[in-house]
Amino acid sequence: MNRKWIVAALLSGALPFPAFAQDAAPADANATAQDDDSIIVTAARTILPPNALPLTIDVISKDVLDQQIAISGSVTDAVSTLTPSFSPTRQKLSGAGETLRGRSPLYAINGIPQSTPMRDGSRDGFTIDGFFVDRVELIYGSNALQGIGGTGGIVNQVTVGAPKEEGFGGRFLLQGTTDNDFSGDGMGGKVAGLVQYRAGRFDATFGAAWEKRGAFYDGEGRRVGLNLTQGETQDSRTLSLFARLGYELSPTARLDLIASRFELKGDGDYVALAGNRLTGIPTTAVRGTPPGKSAQNRTESIAASLTDTDLGGGNFVSQIFFNRSRDTFGGEVATQATFQDPALAPVGTLFDQSQNRSRKLGAKLSYERAVPGFEDLTLTIGFDALVDKTEQALIATGRVWVPPSDFRSLAPFGQANLKLFDGVVRLAGGVRWENVKIKIDDYHTLASTTFRACSATVTTNCGLPSYGGVDVAGGKPKFQDLLINGGVIVEPWHGIRAYASYAEGFTVPDIGRITRAVNTTGVDLDTFLDISPIVSNNREIGIELKRGPLDASATYFWSSSDKGQLLIARPDRIFDVQRQRVEIQGLEVNLRVALPIDGLKLGVGYAHLQGKYDSDSANPDGIVDTDLDGTNISPDRLNLNASYNKGPLSALIQTQFFLDRTFHGKANPDPRNNFGGYNITDASIRYQTGFGGLSFSVQNLFDKFYIDYSSDTRLPTDNLAFFAGRGRTFTLGWDYRF
Question: Is 25's pLDDT higher than 70?
Answer without folding.
Answer: no
